[in-house]
Structures
1.
Amino acid sequence: MQLSRRVQSLKPSSTLAIAARAKALKAQGVDILSFSAGEPDFDTPEPIKQAAIDALHAGMTRYVPVPGDPETRAVLAHKLTSENNLPGLTADHVIISAGGKHSLYLVMQALLEAAPPGQPPAEVILPTPAWVSYPPQVQLAGARLVEIETNAASRFKITPDQLAAAITENSRLLILNSPSNPTGVMYTPDELRALAKVVAEAAVSKAPDLVVVSDELYEKIIYSGIEHLSFGAIPEVAHRTITINGLSKAYAMTGWRIGYAAMPGEFGASLCKAVARLQSQMNSHITSFCLPAIRTAVLECSDYVEQMRLAFAKRAELITSRMAELPGMQAAKPDGAFYVFPDVSAHFGKRSKAGAPINSASDFAAALIDEAHVAVVPGEDFLGPGPRCLRFSFACSEEDINRGMTRLGEFLDSLT
Ligand code: GLU
């Protein structure tokens, strides 16, 4: 018996794998400090929970429309129009799926395919380091990944020249993620406008089918003062940009699995219909009684979001200042999200107290969890400079951050 080639070569999500390992060790009684998954430690705000409970009690337990009910999609369309300045969105331009990850997967399946024999594959341009699930999703869609590697010196941002050089006649997708997972850095509005200009020019000269996926999952968690500009709000690219968002991070709703994709115009409506066809053959729709909870979150919970943002801002300050005191933990200061991505390669070539060689980010992360009980995600699967880096998610308490940094310091001191 054989598994398909598609799954044989598929890696599991490393963020979820490390988070599961940290949880399993905690369940065994090990005092693990987890900086692994990007999962807010806050509880979902009470009014959101109540909306789902009320919907359950009202009998909302049956099938609902595949893309989500029109009322909820209209609320999301209104949010995207009024807050994000996306032009001309209606409920028909929005589709709700089981998490931002699912939205991204479906969009890639709807836009990409393996090339017929003898023809060049569709290319997906991805600035790296990038979130671990984009490359496998590109692979599953049969397309070719084109990395634009960045580094800490450029604050992990691509330049217009780098983008222009990466675009070819085969470019079908450009993925942008600001604020970024795993670095927390953001593009300024001017930087995004400069990238949009390159996309618009390339669309005329050589890549007419180029679409931009703007993953804006962290738009509500920004603390450096940079203004969040939705790529789809820039007129030259508005009609070739898909905005991806979800409720997991901003509203502390990771387990609910709620994401959405939106794109204006005629093509946007066709894309949403195509994604709905895929979804109808897959999981039909999201859990019915979550739909009213989406409306409550978006319409009534901005105060909760602000409280969490302020907490993340304090934690960002704390973790970066504690990390800066440690040797060989160079990190770009995040603008948003809840990640910091230090380069730890200064420690490669050393050995841990228990004798484990530290020659890679994975070695470092393995020794750190085994010997110091601090869980982090090794950078390899984020690509680009990732193999020299570790991702710390600071969606945990200030106390855990302090204890974690103390343990990290002791671990570094013990390396020989
Ligand atoms: N997006 C979060 C992270 O990067 C949750 C896990 C996942 O979906 O990768 O940690």
Note: Residues 13, 15-16, 37-39, 101, 131-133, 181 surround glutamic acid (CB under 6 Å).
2.
Amino acid sequence: MAKYLVVGAGLFGATFAYEAAKRGHEVKVIEKRDHVAGNIYTKEVDGIQVHQYGAHIFHTSNKTVWNYVNQFAEFNRYTNSPVANFNGEIYNLPFNMNTFNKLWGVVTPEQAKSKIEEQKSVLHGKRPENLEEQAISLVGTDIYEKLIKGYTEKQWGRSAKELPAFIIRRLPVRFTYDNNYFNDSYQGIPMGGYTQIVEKMLDNDLISVSTSVDFFADKDKYLKDYDRVVFTGMIDQYFDYCLGELEYRSLRFETKEIDVDNFQGNAVVNYTDSKTPYTRIIEHKHFDFGKGGKGKTVITHEYPKEWKHGDEPYYPVNNSKNNALYKSYKELADKEAEKVIFGGRLGQYRYYNMDQVIAAALNTVKIEFGE
Ligand code: FAD
Ligand code: UDP
């Protein structure tokens, strides 16, 4: 039986560890933070599950993944319906008939489509090549200016012209009066929070977990002591940035408990103007239909910032320059495939959602164990 080291107790690392232990392998998990669960970590404050690293809504159309994650928690029926606040004007998201009606007074899908057609004519039929062009071609110039440009440029610290089109295609555009942010078949929030999912995955006699341990403090020894290593940290850091640094986007979360019963009436409110320095405010109790302290609530302001050494690298910046550099790192990684598997958002430098991380980890398991 091979001895495994998993670097990072996030969702990828935990899924791999759980599956390896299920097959009788011994697994050591090391995690540099002082807790498990990576970015899906939640903590209870006054009966409210606080999402410590930003709003996390589980959504998927992959039935296998949905059944899989339901082994570890029971999910509520939460449906994400964020609202956008543009200088005090409130719009429904994602872009749907409610948004179009509020903005233009249109009532039928046909009227909304013709308004968008008229506005996208500024592109002169050009195939969208960046986020700005993609947004205008999907929803027209008014929505781009009010609900997309300011938010996007704050979030990514770059002009929307320099960002890849796929980022805005994450959001549905719908010609129905439906404020569900996702098109997926399954959606919810685990009752009792996300941390329990990872804790249950790691709760096996064959798995031992050490937190506050950084792989890079003893990289050579770890590589010598273990047969196989699953690495879910930053791929460029693993190779000591030898080909140059990949770019990441970081965030600063400002979380506070306030003596108010209901602060904003919704779990997520996006501030889409360019002047407000934060992108969104989360009011955590609304993920669980207001459950938790009466007369108290917990809110988090999310401030985007450029990643620098020492910050958490929350998002890969998947523009063409970084993707090309990642490809070169991936070639180095392939040469180490005998020893190391690179997985997860940072190991694969990919803007993965939770369900995609689970699917990717299960796929890695299949390959690793020849199934
Ligand atoms: P991580 O959770 O980052 O885990 C990697 C772990 O490795 C971390 O704990 C890190 O500390 C550890 N590590 C790194 N380097 C080292 C080292 N050198 N030594 C030891 N340990 C190390 N997904 C959704 O599906 N729905 C959402 O609503 C959603 N919202 C999100 C909101 C925000 C603000 C962010 C940032 C992400 C969101 N996601 C969402 C994505 C989701 O968080 C990820 O898909 C998932 O958590 C990735 O899991 P992972 O294991 O790849 O990475
Ligand atoms: N976006 C926007 N306005 C919004 C919400 C999102 O322009 O009100 C854009 C922005 O570029 C963002 C992208 O859509 O980065 C994807 O949004 P999502 O909510 O998926 O971002 P995440 O939750 O992953 O940060």
Note: Residues 3-41+63-75+186-247+316-368 form a domain with the Rossmann fold fold (CATH 3.40.50.720).
